[in-house]
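Hypothesis: this fold can be encoded by more than one sequence.
Test: take the structure tokens below, design a sequence, compare later.
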């Protein structure tokens, strides 16, 4: 009888250890990554504040030319973030192309930034006849500085900053459909021009 109890106790210990390993595995492979992802998403949220100096950057454009934001000093500039290699990035580029002439008449410079490579930007610019700078940030450093990163890997948020000639952020456009975003930019440029 004593031997049977000892065997049962050993069996219970083995079952207990197996259950603990399963629970630890669940924590390690499901719950902890979910908590981390939620934390990243929460911290991803806030765009740069209006009135702040736009962060410095220097990146290669679609023609492999090095472009810095100081190239735009003295001009209004719309710095927007996109995903050139995804369908929504192509749609965004088509809308920008449709509004390009009106934005140029307002003396607004455009700069698109994404994780995509220089060749991807070159192909996009050629296909849609885009002439403004499309900058490649494969490491995502500038994208992160402008709070345009997401928790979904190499994908930028739909966010844009209207920056004045002194490099100060005057407007932020976050979470808008591209057509609404461009309408808001045009309206804001008209309002700012009348000041």
């Amino acid at each position: 009888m004593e031997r049977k109890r000892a065997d049962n106790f050993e069996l219970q210990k083995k079952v207990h250890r197996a259950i603990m390993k399963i629970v630890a595995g669940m924590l390690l492979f499901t719950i902890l990554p979910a908590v981390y992802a939620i934390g990243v998403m929460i911290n991803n949220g806030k765009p740069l504040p209006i009135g702040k100096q736009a962060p410095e950057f220097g990146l290669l454009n679609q023609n492999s030319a090095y472009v810095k934001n100081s190239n735009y000093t003295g001009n209004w500039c719309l710095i927007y973030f996109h995903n050139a290699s995804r369908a929504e990035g192509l749609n965004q580029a088509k809308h920008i192309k449709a509004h390009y002439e009106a934005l140029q008449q307002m003396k607004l410079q455009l700069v698109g930034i994404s994780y995509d490579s220089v060749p991807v930007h070159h192909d996009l610019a050629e296909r849609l006849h885009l002439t403004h700078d499309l900058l490649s940030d494969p490491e995502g450093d500038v994208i992160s500085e402008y709070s345009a990163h997401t928790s979904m890997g190499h994908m930028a948020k739909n966010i844009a900053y209207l920056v004045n000639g002194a490099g100060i952020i005057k407007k932020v456009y976050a979470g808008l459909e591209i057509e609404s975003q461009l309408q808001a930019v045009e309206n804001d440029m008209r309002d700012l021009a009348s000041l």
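DSSP finds five helices and seven strands in the chain. The first helix runs from residue 2 to 44.
Hypothesis status: open.
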